[in-house]
Task: structure prediction
Amino acid sequence: MDWLQKIPIGQYVSGKSSWLRSIDPRVKLSWILLFLLTPILANSIWRISLVFVLLIITFLSFLPPRIWWRSLAFLLVFSLIIGSLSIVLPASESSFELTIRAPDEIPGAIVLTRSWEIFRFGPFDFGGISLGPLIVDRRSAELGIKTSTLIFTVIHSVNLMLITTPPEDLVWAIRWFFAPLTLLGFPSEKLSFQLLLALRFLPLVQEELQNLFRSIGVRAIDFRKLGFKSTLGLFISLGERLLSNILLRAEQGSDSLMSREGLWLSSEQLRPCIVVNPKYLLLNLSLVFLLLIAISLRFLYGTS
Result:
């Protein structure tokens, strides 16, 4: 039942075996924004390219496979299932329910036929696929590709950042980007410290959830004999216990904060040593240069 230890999604894992840990958190956050923002209004080629780039980064990151292979396999399967459902499930009314006038009745009408080919490369093309009453054309295939690639890109890119970046470094990078807003009275120091507390609090919530699932597994409850009403009551009581445990942890955290007289850490106290280490300067400059090239490629070839 220790599935959170086997699949550390969104949890920082300490170590020194990967070059991803040596990247400046500001550069790392900029790359994450690239993976999160560039799929918007992008074509399918760019979205698939982002997936392959993430897979290459994962395999060449020299991270221990036990950290990422389970979450990667689960995410790939989940994305493929959602993408397949997006392809075959109808998203609008059936064509036989729509009233269509004959083109001959409208003088000067230009008839636009729907493209049923999925893929075309020069003289080679790949037409639609018939799945019983359903026909997969280019539009439905693009919808499935966009849905599956977006889920994989968003979740896996953020997961790679969180498992290789301490929360203190991430909060310092966000505080650095919001530094100009302090001139307008934006409370970046306070909000960054609250973000740090939230990142520290998430593993506690996951631990409480794992403890509840472990308690169900130890008791070997037979849900078939309980029935629907008793099973629903059991899960409601588990939700109440989870909420009460979370509120208890939050109260303990607030008490520890009040014992420090409500003082929060400044951004300079969270400054990572990677920023001031010249050994990683070449790596960070190379990644900034590659980031600029990726942005240029997005505007040149990624527009839908």
